[in-house]
Fold this protein.
Amino acid sequence: MADTATTLTNAAMREQVRAGEGVWGFSRSQLVGVLALVAFILVAPFVLYPVFVMKLLCFALFACAFNLLIGYVGLLSFGHAAYFGMGAYITGYVAKAWGVTPVLAIIMGGVVAAAMGVVGGWIAIRRQGIYFAMITLALAQMVYFFCVQAPFTGGEDGIQAIPRGSFLGIVSLSNDMTMYWFTAAIFLAGFLLIHRIIHSPFGQVLKAIRENEPRATSLGYRTDDFKLMAFILSAGLAGIAGATKSLVFGIATLTDVHWAMSGEVVLMTLVGGLGTVFGPVVGAAVIVTMQNYLAEMGAWVTVIQGAIFVACVLAFRRGIVGEIANLLKVKL
Amino acid sequence: MDEIFGIPAPLLFGQLLLGLINGAFYAMLSLGLAVIFGLLNIINFAHGAQFMMGAFAAWMLLEWAGLGYWWALLLAPIIVGFTGVVMERLMISRLYKLDHLYGLLLTFGLALIIEGIFRNEFGSSGMPYRIPPELAGAWDLGFMFLPVYRGWVVIAALILCLATWLLIEKTRLGAYLRAATENAALVQAFGVNVPRMVTLTYGAGVALAAIGGVLAAPIYSVNPQMGTNLIIVVFAVVVIGGMGSILGSIVTGFGLGIVEGLTKVFWPEASATVIFVIMAIVLLARPAGLFGRA
């Protein structure tokens, strides 16, 4: 992503200069963004329908996990639905069939998704660029067909009526507000974890690989190991997003593993801004809201999503947050 | 010769034929993808949607204009190819200086738009398209019945693939094309209008997909989703074959179709995933693909 990459490099250099100023590695402008995000999370359930906001947070976490790869390693995965969907299936299955408590169920969903990421990433990182996108898409399609046939997924029906259970066996999550705070905590934890990853020495190496992989290699980094690690983290977090979603709605279906879901997360991140901290969150909010209000328009939603894709690629490559950051000359 | 490896011969040959037909479509589509990728350096995600447009063009020509199969075989690629030319001029041509991934994202968006529009107009259920009377019926080959139309699809696809290969490898136009793939700036300096060649190449690749759609119309039901699921498999085929060689993509396409057909006989549950598994194995052993250059 040549032009995003250049703007990012400049921003990254400015950020390095000001590194001492921030709190937890957030620059001053990003701190404002984080406070705004936390304020939104605190106020939203009282203004908006909590289930809607929970859906938004799940997809925001999914998009952030996806952005870890495309934004910071420069790898476009077109098959992230596999990890999101498998996280949803595993959590749904263990919560319903084995009665596992929600925290443990979500962890199991994330771990299985990460384990799949080990295999998928190990295969996919052998190629770069367009091939990487095609390989991840093909591997995800394989997972889709597996889910169509595997007995535990319930085939066309999916897993339904997944119990939310109770948090640590004490607080029941069947109430939407309680579930909301649980979901919000998972989202924030994931969001901060991704931020921490990006700003760790490990994250700096990832960015170096994105900018110039041969040079990173010549500096003595085994770039494949770093790429694989980033892929596993991204897959695991996508799995946690899917896992949480399955508990919120009580269902895990083939929609979650379908290629259209992989396309949606690409769209969310693209709309919000590739390689920005808040872009995926804003993009997820835009797309989820749009789907919510246009739901009765049927196939036109697909047409509109396609049109947004085209508009973003042709005229709007920085995305919403990227454009704002550029306008204000800050890093968001 | 009633049983082979404990499998009834008619079942084995029936699935082999189905595999060969699927392989014909894999070969045609991956060939178009490879030609477009060679010169434009983009992966045309809209290829499946354009394949579907070809099938719908045939259906529309029959229902709305009364023009039959043979006219469709001629007109559908021209019409759909022209939409491809317009798309290239208006949108894709703006992306050549950017990262190739943007081309993938743009054509993915275009595929969503095309598929959504057709789903709005025609719904998700398929439309039947009759086999032309000249190609109806079946031949008795002794060991199996071969529906004439299916035989025709395999032969037509082979002819089309070989003609494309000859055009690219053996003609002056093909030489320009190969030269521009290697170094577009130099070819332009020799006085060849490279931008026009790029546009026409995209149009030709799209037309190839549309011919595939017309050929597919009487076999599969004509429906808006017919292209997308196919194109993901074709992506895997392209990764397995590598996009460096035209002949390579033809061989890989037919070969994988046959492998898929055989898997349906011996292990039906795995038939949907076998091509993806092969892709993974090939990537581990030979990351550049069977015929690719690293």
